[in-house]
Design a protein that fits this description.
Strands 5, 6, 7, 8, 9, 10, 13, 14, 15 and 16 form a ten-stranded mixed β-sheet that branches. Strands 1-4-2-3 form a four-stranded antiparallel β-sheet, with no helix packed on it. It has 307 residues and is of the alpha+beta class. A hairpin with a 7-residue loop joins strand 11 and strand 12. It is built from six helices and 16 strands. The protein has three domains: 62 residues, Roll (Structural Genomics Hypothetical 15.5 Kd Protein In mrcA-pckA Intergenic Region, Chain A); 93 residues, Pseudouridine synthase; 143 residues, 2-Layer Sandwich (Pseudouridine synthase).
Length: 307
C-alpha cells in the first residue's frame, strides 16, 4: 500500500506569526514550483493535526505537517534488478553503481539504466515518487550515487550541490607518474566542436573546472590517485588528466590504453553531505571494484618484478 510522503516541523520564534506559505518559502526553501504542485496536485497542510490553508498564521510551538502530493513516475520504465543499496532513509538512497550501466535511460537503451532499477524498487515498496538522481556518474564509472527520494529533498540537495556542499572522492588509475604528485588542475572545459560526446580544455569558451588530486601509489607505467572535484563538469576528471598527458587507463575516448583496463579506471569511493533535515553529517565509503583492484595488483606485481 502506498504511503504519502510527509514532513513535520515544530514552529520556533523565527517562524511564529508567519503564514504557512511564507514559512514554507522563506524558512524551508520551498520553490514556487513545489508550492504550485501542492495546490494543484492535492498536497495538504496541517496545524496541530487540523487541516489548514497556506494563508493561515503559525504560532510558537505549533506543529506543522505537510503531506506532499504523490509524484507521477513519468517516462521511466520499471525494470527489476539487483541494486547495491549502501544506505537508505526516508529521504535518501545511496547506491553502489556498477560499471557498464548508465544512470538514466538513453535513446538506445530505455530499460537497463540505474533509474529503471530504482523505479522498480520504488514500485515494489510502494514509494510514491519518481527517480531523482543527485550525483550522476558516467556509464563506465563505478561507485557511489546519491538519490533523493522525493522532489523536496531533491531541490535541497541540488542547491547544496551548486554550493559545493556535496563532496565526492574518486579513485583513478592514470597513465604514468604525475608531477607534482599532489596538486590542483584548473583548466576550463567545453564540448568539443567536432563531437557530441567529447569534452576538451578550452580556455576561450570553456566553463571553470577545478580538480584536486593526490597520488596514492606508483605502479608500473601508471599511478593510483585520489581525486576531489570542486566543480562538476561532464567528463571533468577524464579530460583534465588527459590534458596533462596522463589519461585514465582504459579511457580510449581520451587517449588511455586498454591493455590493463577495458573501461576508464575511475570509481567514486566516498560521498559526504549534510542531512537536509536532521542537520547531521553523512558519509559513506565504497571499496574499489574487482577490475580496478586486479589492475592495481597486476601493475604492482609487474613493478616489483622490474625492480
Amino acid at each position: 500500500m502506498t504511503a504519502s510522503i510527509q514532513k513535520s516541523w515544530v514552529i520556533d520564534d523565527a517562524g511564529a506569526q508567519m503564514t504557512i506559505k511564507d514559512f514554507l518559502q522563506k524558512k524551508l526553501k520551498f520553490s514556487r514550483r513545489l508550492l504550485t504542485a501542492m495546490k494543484k496536485e492535492d498536497g495538504k497542510c496541517f496545524i496541530n493535526e487540523k487541516e489548514a490553508h497556506i494563508t493561515e498564521s503559525l504560532h510558537l510551538h505549533d506543529q506543522l505537517m505537510v503531506i506532499f502530493p504523490d509524484e507521477t513516475p513519468g517516462s521511466i520504465e520499471a525494470t527489476k534488478m539487483d541494486l547495491a543499496i549502501v544506505y537508505e532513509d526516508d529521504d535518501h538512497l545511496v547506491i553502489n553503481k556498477p560499471t557498464d550501466q548508465a544512470c538514466m535511460p538513453g535513446m538506445n537503451d530505455r530499460y537497463s539504466s540505474l533509474a529503471n532499477g530504482i523505479q522498480s524498487y520504488y514500485n515494489a515498496i510502494g514509494h510514491p515518487a519518481t527517480v531523482h538522481i543527485v550525483t550522476r556518474l558516467d556509464k563506465n564509472t563505478s561507485g557511489l550515487v546519491l538519490i533523493a527520494k522525493n522532489r523536496y529533498t531533491h531541490a535541497l540537495l541540488s542547491e547544496a550541490q551548486k554550493k559545493n556542499q556535496i563532496h565526492r572522492t574518486y579513485e583513478a588509475i592514470i597513465t604514468g607518474k604525475i608531477n607534482p604528485s599532489a596538486g590542483t588542475i584548473q583548466a576550463p572545459i567545453a564540448r568539443k566542436k567536432t563531437s557530441i560526446i567529447e569534452r576538451e580544455v578550452n580556455k576561450e569558451e570553456g566553463k571553470e573546472a577545478i580538480t584536486h588530486y593526490q597520488t596514492i601509489s606508483s605502479l608500473v607505467r601508471a599511478s593510483s590517485v585520489r581525486i576531489q572535484l570542486e566543480t562538476g563538469r561532464t567528463h571533468q576528471i577524464r579530460v583534465h588528466f588527459s590534458h596533462l598527458g596522463h589519461p585514465l587507463l582504459g579511457d580510449d575516448l581520451y587517449g588511455g590504453r586498454t591493455d590493463d583496463m577495458q573501461r576508464q579506471a575511475l570509481h567514486c569511493s566516498t560521498l559526504e553531505w549534510m542531512h537536509p533535515f536532521e542537520k547531521k553529517s553523512m558519509r559513506f565509503d565504497c571499496a574499489l571494484p574487482l577490475d580496478m583492484m586486479n589492475c592495481e595488483k597486476n601493475l604492482a606485481i609487474t613493478s616489483l618484478k622490474n625492480q
